[in-house]
Amino acid sequence: SLYAAKVQSRGLSAVAQCESLRYKLLNGLAVRRACYGVLRFIMESGAKGCEVVVSGKLRAARAKSMKFTDGFMIHSGQPAKDFIDNATRHVLLRQGVLGIKVKIMRASSSPSDPTGEKAGGKGLPDSVTIIEPKEEQPILAPASQDYGAKAAQAQAMQQQMQQQQAAEGQEAAQDAPASGAQEY
């Protein structure tokens, strides 16, 4: 059984762009012109970067390779596996076989995909998002219990106790000399 599904965005599919370049070369379009056309289409589709390599007998009898790059491309680590789409195709021309390689780096956080779910489910590990702080409202009065009132009340009670003790001490001092005078 064969399963086929339509590609969401043709410009971000390395296989689709590799096949497109292959048919352009089979129809006799110049290599440089065909590659730049594919490169421009990929970047306009919203890719972060792309690379097209064509190698083989391009014009002369001697084989060489031409590399066309645009944008930002990573080459190592797990993000390279997560964000880069690769495709390789071969074109059989009159003078020999050409090899075509297309690498497309999908955008990790585009405006349409802020979480990066389309590109591996996460953003690049070294990308930094700066979030603006919210305006804070100043707190005028505490919303919960008034703990300051309890402390002030306890302090007032303590002062009253001291005043009562002082008043009792003065009364005792006045009584003491009177009783002492009677002893003489």
Topology (elements, then pairings):
Blueprint: H1 14-26, H2 31-44, E1 49-56, E2 64-71, H3 78-83, E3 84-92, E4 97-105, H4 147-183
Antiparallel strand pairs: 1-2, 1-4, 3-4
Family: Belongs to the universal ribosomal protein uS3 family.
InterPro entries: Ribosomal_S3_C_sf (IPR036419), Ribosomal_uS3 (IPR057258), Ribosomal_uS3_C (IPR001351), Ribosomal_uS3_CS (IPR018280)
Biased composition (Low complexity): 149-178
How does this structure look, described?
It is a single chain. The longest helix is centred in the C-terminal third of the chain and has 37 residues, at 147-183. The chain has a domain at 10-105: 2-Layer Sandwich (Ribosomal protein S3 C-terminal domain), CATH 3.30.1140.32. Helix 1 (14-26) runs antiparallel to helix 2 (31-44). It contains four helices and four strands. The protein is an alpha+beta fold. The radius of gyration is 42 Å and the shape is rod-shaped. The protein has helices spanning 14-26, 31-44, 78-83, 147-183, and strands at residues 49-56, 64-71, 84-92, 97-105. Strands 2-1-4-3 form a four-stranded antiparallel beta sheet. The mean pLDDT is 83.
